[in-house]
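Notebook entry, cofactor series.
This is the third protein in the set we're modelling with a bound small molecule. For this one the ligand is zinc ion. I'm keeping the input format identical across the series so the outputs can be compared line by line later. Sequence and SMILES below, as received.
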Amino acid sequence: MKIWEAHAEPKCKLFGWLALHGKLLTADMLVVRGWPHDPLCPLCVRAPETTEHLCKDCPFTMAIWNQMKSWDNDDSTDISHEYHSISEWWDAMIIGKTNKEQKRINGCFLYILWNAWKERNRRIFTVRRLTYLEVANITREDFLQRDRAINSFRPAIPAEPD
Ligand SMILES: [Zn+2]
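Returned structure with ligand:
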């Protein structure tokens, strides 16, 4: 439910589902298939690339996450490394929040994962590299753009009768 009810576009939700179900074609999955790959994470070039690393432990992804939190006036310390799985960490992020807040956080998280993945692919398949701050800016713009698109439809919907 945290994926499908999130404030995010379907492409991000599908990506989140693939990540939680271990279906991303990260280096650890490519080696199983015998496909060419670089074993190191292209974002930080410090650790083997796995879905858990890319989504939860990579310092590059965490820098995007922390930047997004700071724009949201949230200066809480990141503790993703204390959790064994993405899902466990994600649950801890939203526990005790209202339903509306959860959908917003879930959407933000999915946009971060989606844009970290796009940057990972950009580095593998092109010569272009963005900084974490540039990726964070794109992520924020994606998130706000979806919000604006949803809200621009609201005035056209007739109010519910009392
Ligand atoms: Zn990394």
